[in-house]
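Annex B. Sample input.
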Amino acid sequence: MLKGLKMHIYLVLDEQTSILIFLFFLILIAWKPEALPRIARELGKWYSWARRSMDDFLREINEPINETKTSINNTTLDIKRTINDAIDPDLLRIAKALNISTQGRSRQEVIDEIMKKLSSNNK
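Annex B, continued. Sample output.
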């Protein structure tokens, strides 16, 4: 039925894969196959050491960056709070007209004092 149909299997190898296969066969020829597990363990240890060293290095680099980001975020939040707590000029005029001291008070404290003063004047 399918006479003449040949099936071909193509192994697509990039440059790195072919180098790894070549090195594997070179190691297999150079050392006995019984030594390969020991060699693999040693390579694994070296890889683990290199990986830990790289992680430590990256952590040392990223730590000051993260601290700086946190500091900037905290400063930004403080500025926003200061802006939100700032007493606008109209509020200052009202407080001055009602003889309310605004020094050292937050915006909300001044508003509460004005409301208290106004409610007591209406009674």
